[in-house]
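Posted in: Protein Modeling Q&A

I'm a second-year student putting together a small comparison for a lab meeting, and my supervisor asked me to include a predicted structure for Endonuclease III. I've never done this before, so apologies if this is the wrong subforum. The sequence is pasted below exactly as I got it from our records. If anyone can share the structure token output, I'd also love a short note on what stands out.
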Amino acid sequence: MYKKEKADRAEKVALLLQKENPAPKTELTHVNEYQLAIAVMLSAQTTDKKVNQVTPALFAKYPDWEALASADTDEVAGLIRQVNFHKGKAQRIVAAARTVLSLYDGMLPHDMLQLMKLPGVARKSANVIMQELWGIAEGIVVDTHVSRISQRLGLTSQKDPKKIEEDLMSLLPKKYWRNFSGSAVLHGRYVCTARNPKCGECVLNGICPSAHKI
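Accepted answer (user: helix_wrangler)
Welcome! Here is the predicted structure, written out as tokens:
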């Protein structure tokens, strides 16, 4: 497929997803920047539902960066033990809290590269934090759902999330990045599922080359 054809399809996809989800929001429960950032760090290779089950107790005991920075990592690990890789994540979120305090005076930086200096924050997490908290889209969130639907739609043949993001950013005008990131995640989670995708009720089935073939 020529680049222009891919770009045309990508824009049609973005417009249809935007119509389906005009204002997508993360399903990670949070009330402030601290809670969202920690929840995002915990969500790597873990469902949002599972993260939402452990964060109430975590935030009750450690309500802010200062409290978490002085926490015992074993105690933190015990509170989040239901999430995958809980021991490593406990170490990283405590280290992240200390970094926020030491480098950024207790405030999350509104900058992709600065955010990625925090332990536990890679590019996908930084994209989520920036888009959800401040509406800043410096890239496109690529999780397992976005990877899957982008491949099924023929927008990329890449497997690596970084390369998938590069492909999507080259196809989509920046004005679509924020909505596409959130709406594609939800679409992949509830409609274009890994197994038994709901092609019959999918708003993209008219332009998707994989529709009714999986």
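A couple of things worth pointing out for your meeting: Residues 86-104 form the longest helix (19 residues). The CA atoms of residues 14 and 180 lie 6 Å apart.
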